[in-house]
Amino acid sequence: RLDAPAYAVGFPDSHDLGAARSAAARLGLDLQSVELDHERLADAVPRVARATGRTNAMDVGIALPLFVLAERASADGVDRLALGQGADELFGGYAKVAGARTDPRVEAETVRGARRELLGTLPDQLERDVLGLRAAGVEPVTPLLHDRVVRAALALPGELLVTDRGDRKWALRLAARDALPDRLAFREKKAVQYGSLAARELDRLARRAGFKRHAGDHVRRYVEHRVAGTDG
Question: What is the pTM of this model?
């Protein structure tokens, strides 16, 4: 067990903060909860966009909560953060991997084939995360992307990625049972932009700023507006 604090980020009523607090209480962890609000989110938008070089809703929605969390950790004197990046890509965590045979979002028709497709997205995602976290003052550490873990994951048969019942990341969950109670090892998670409510509230900020959803790409236009408004 590491002698280090754990961090979680989200709006006060978010799934992620609630799940992190209940897990920390069960495991006796020192949890630092980083609560988001509209002011904090809006302030971070241009800094995240500049750091990552991205303005689209998906990338900014993912990078924002990680950036705010990393700023808090850096202020606490933390210089490295361990992240769970790679879990879904390596171990079959995506619904489109589980439903590869019929899901139009992937070309492969097998779980392992779809997993291979998703692994191709990792470099781009990691670039975004690393740039954002470094701009906030911390260095990311990704244990699940260690060579030995990657080799073990790539050797797994499809049924240990997704079971016949549709249980995803099965091998990873079974391994987690060595250190966690079943209630935590088999708990479902949400993507960070949804579990933290960052995506929902970023959308709300864009609409409040006058960028209409029906016009399309309103979040990207809001982000670009915020960047332009803080240049110079």
Answer: 0.94
